[in-house]
Structure formats: structure tokens, C-alpha cells
Amino acid sequence: MDDIIQAQQAVDLARARLHDAVTAARREGRSWAEIGQLLGMTRQAAFKRFGTTHDPRTGEIMKARSIDKASRLTEEIFRLIANGDDEAVQAHLHPQVREQLTPQRIADAWRSALSECGSLEAFTHTHVELHDGTVLTEDEEVVGTVIGATRLMCEAGEMVGRAAFGETDQVVGLLIVPTDHGKLPF
Fold first, then answer.
1. In terms of residue numbers, what domain contains 32?
2. What are 142-146's contacts with CB under 8 Å, separation 24+?
3. Are 142 and 67 in contact (CB under 8 A)?
4. How far apart are alpha carbons 174 and 129 in whole angstroms?
5. What angle do CA 95, 150, 186 make, to 5 degrees?
6. How many separate domains does the chain show?
7. Among 5, 46, 50, 175, which is least packed, fewest CB within 10 Å?
8. Angle formed by the axes of helices 2-27 and 43-50, to 10°?
């Protein structure tokens, strides 16, 4: 057990050192594109992980938030949709998207998915990512919107479910698409 504790401490220290190194590089005038390239990610992914910005309404620094609930919330929202629990689904939606993501529109999309592959049976490959596809680990913190993605295992096929979560972990977008989908809006 001591090995596990020491390994976790090493991971925490490495993350802190990386954050400090990125902060120093930014102070030296390095761009997010340069930093992202060194880290094997886009400039947006680098900024979301390490950057800071100010809320234009308050002037306060926008804090990074934990994404530890996003995977669970992704599966929960699609389970609620599959169960037809419109009230619970609406409670997860950000107020600004409730006009577009009405219970009827969500139910229609789900019925369309059901007609392709049958009832939902399970989830696989649930993860959290950024808009550019960079996969995040549950213990990371980021600024802004994240995407919860899961494979919807149905009785006669598979679909992909994607839920975009805003800074308050409310859903700001939903997608249900075939597994061979092309470019997606998020």
C-alpha cells in the first residue's frame, strides 16, 4: 500500500511541476500553440488545462473546476432519456438550452435512435473530453465546457451519446449519433 501512496504523491508532484512550468513559459511569452504542441495537444486543450481568464461580468479569475462527476452525469442523463423521465432530464439542462432541448425534441431523437438499434442495455467507453477530442482524466481540472461521451450499447446495435456540460455541470448540448458519425458540432 505504501507503493500506491508514493506513486500518487509522485503523480501529484509531477502535475504541480508541469503547471508551474507552463505558467513560467507563459510569463516568458510562449504561446498556447507552442505549449500545446510540446504537450501533444491543441492550444485550446492546453489553455483549458493550465490557463486563466477573467469573468467579464465580475472581473474575477475564472477558476478551473473538477470534472470528476462528468462521466457519471453523462450516463445518468442518457439513462433518464431512455427511461422517459422528462422532468429529471430537464432538471439537468442549463436554463438557456431548455427552449431548444424540449422534452418532445429529446423524445423524438431517442425514438429515432430506438428505431435503429433497440432499447438501451448498457454503457461502455464513457469518458470526458474537450471540444478538440483531447481525453481528460477524472482528476483533472479545466475551465469551460467539457464533453461527456459514451457508447450506448443497445439490444441490436450501438450509438454514441455526447453531453456537453457547462461550468455548473448543467447540460448545454446533447447528441445521439451513429458510431460511424463524421465531424460533430461538439
1. 2-63
2. 142/48, 142/49, 142/64, 142/65, 142/67, 143/47, 143/48, 143/51, 143/52, 143/53, 143/62, 143/63, 143/64, 143/65, 143/167, 144/48, 145/172, 145/186, 146/67, 146/70
3. yes
4. 14
5. 55
6. 2
7. 5
8. 110
pLDDT in tens, 31-51: 999 999 999 988 888 888 888
Distance, in Å, from the CA atom of 106 to the CA atom of 51, rounded to the nearest integer, reads 35
Question: Cα torsion for 24, 26, 31, 37, to the nearest 10°?
Answer: 40
Task: Measure the CA angle with vertex 94, ends 93 and 100; round to 5°.
Answer: 75
pTM (2 d.p.) = 0.79
Q: Report residue 11 CA to chain centroid gap.
A: 22
CATH of the domain at 79: 3.10.450.590
| pLDDT per position as a tens digit, 149-173 | 999 999 999 999 999 999 889 999 9
Same domain, yes or no: 95 and 161: yes
Q: How far apart are CA 64 and CA 181, in angstroms?
A: 31
